[in-house]
């Protein structure tokens, strides 16, 4: 992502209340997930990797991508958005 001029941040949250405003509380509401080895585990941590980019070449768009991890495993969910900044 860095080579494409995205700046990324990672946030790790141990409860629904700790999540940033506007975050999807899905995993806290479900309360469990099926791990890569097929076991059902209780959710104890949700991690958000958020990458943003505002083009330095006078682009009029800002981009954001967010990837979600649950207890260290990527859950396959992501969101991507673009917004007009001029």
* SSE run: EHEEEEE
As a whole number of angstroms, the C-alpha radius of gyration is 15 Å
Give the N-to-C terminal Cα separation: 24 Å
How many beta-strand elements? Answer: 6
Q: Spans of 5+ residues with little confidence (pLDDT < 50)?
A: none
How many helical elements? 1
In which range does the helix fraction lie?
Answer: under 10%
Any idea what the shape is? Answer: elongated
Pairing-aware structural class of the strands and helices?
Answer: mainly beta
Tell me about the largest β-sheet: 4 strands, antiparallel
What can you tell me about this protein's structure?
- There is one protein chain.
- This protein is mainly beta.
- The protein is built from one helix and six strands.
- The strands form two sheets. Strands 1-4-5-6 form a four-stranded antiparallel beta sheet, with no helix packed on it.
- The longest helix has 5 residues.
- The model has no long low-confidence stretch (mean pLDDT 79).
The gist of it:
With 86 residues, the chain is mainly β.
Task: Outline the secondary-structure elements.
Elements: E1 7-13, H1 26-30, E2 32-34, E3 40-42, E4 46-54, E5 61-70, E6 73-84
Antiparallel strand pairs: 1-4, 2-3, 4-5, 5-6
Keyword list:
86 residues, mainly beta, four-stranded antiparallel beta sheet, 51% strand, elongated
């Amino acid at each position: 992502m860095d080579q494409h001029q995205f700046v990324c941040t990672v946030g790790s949250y141990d409860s629904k209340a700790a999540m940033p405003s506007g975050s999807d509380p899905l995993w806290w509401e479900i309360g469990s997930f099926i791990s890569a080895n097929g076991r059902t585990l209780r959710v104890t941590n949700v991690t958000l990797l958020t990458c943003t980019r505002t083009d330095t070449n006078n682009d009029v768009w800002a981009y954001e991508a967010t990837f979600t991890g649950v207890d260290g495993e990527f859950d396959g969910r992501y969101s991507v958005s673009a917004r007009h900044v001029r």
